[in-house]
Amino acid sequence: MEKTTVQQNLIKLVMCGLLAAMTVVIGTVCKLYFTFGSIRITFENLTVLLSGILFGPVAGGLVGACADLITCVTSSQPSINPLITLGAASVGFFAGLMSRLFKNARGILRLLPCVFIPHVIGNLIIKNIALYLMGFHPYSLLLRIPTYLGIAVFECLLLYFIVKNKEIRKLSNYQL
């Protein structure tokens, strides 16, 4: 039985809501802070990247922005920082954009630009500018480079196994 457009949009909306909720939970529960305040190891971007890869740049950007805003409201952060939110949204947006641009690549080669380019743009450029404007020392921001590259490698491997699942691919017609 062929799914109607309404059914496909409803599935996409529900999945994006679930991925945003998972991002908030992962970002709140599964994180490690180091002595430098700008260094944090977390895999909350995994679900934002997945939403962009499966459902496109707009959905990925919205999942990243919504998850960041919900995290700000529900945590002890003093206020919402629009640049940090923009960085979170750009991770999902560029994951979706790279997924579309590299749709002819197969396997892990399709996922590499979908993970590394969003991390560089969202986490290493936009969020570093925001943290610098917040008063973090430039040397501590430089330490974010190897941290996020390591996180990106791990997330790329996890995403590879996630999108290999037939049921996940059925949700979005994604081809690995």
Q: How does this structure look, described?
A:
- With 176 residues, the chain is mainly alpha-helical.
- It is 75% helix and 3% strand.
- The protein is built from 8 helices and 2 strands, in the order αββααααααα.
- The protein has helices at 5-29, 45-55, 57-74, 82-101, 108-133, 138-142, 144-163, 166-172; strands at residues 31-33, 40-42.
- A hairpin with a 6-residue loop joins strand 1 and strand 2 (40-42).
- The radius of gyration is 16 Å and the shape is globular.
- The model has no long low-confidence stretch (mean pLDDT 87).
What's the short version?
This protein is mainly alpha-helical. It contains 8 helices and 2 strands; from the N terminus they run H-E-E-H-H-H-H-H-H-H.
Set down the secondary structure blueprint.
Elements: H1 5-29, E1 31-33, E2 40-42, H2 45-55, H3 57-74, H4 82-101, H5 108-133, H6 138-142, H7 144-163, H8 166-172
Antiparallel strand pairs: 1-2
Helix pairs in contact: 1-2, 1-3, 2-3, 2-4, 2-7, 3-4, 4-5, 5-7
Q: N- to C-terminal separation?
A: 24 Å
Name the average pLDDT. Answer: 87
Task: Outline the low-pLDDT stretches.
Answer: none
Largest sheet: number of strands, sense, barrel closure: 2 strands, antiparallel
Name the helix and strand elements from N-terminus to C-terminus, one letter apiece: HEEHHHHHHH
Give helix % range. over 70%
Q: In what order do the strands lie side by side in the largest sheet?
A: 1-2
Classify the oligomer.
single chain
How big a fraction of the residues is strand? Answer: under 5%
Mass-distribution shape? globular
- The number of helices is 8
Number of E-type strands: 2
Radius of gyration from the alpha-carbon trace, in angstroms: 16 Å
Sheet/helix structural class: mainly alpha
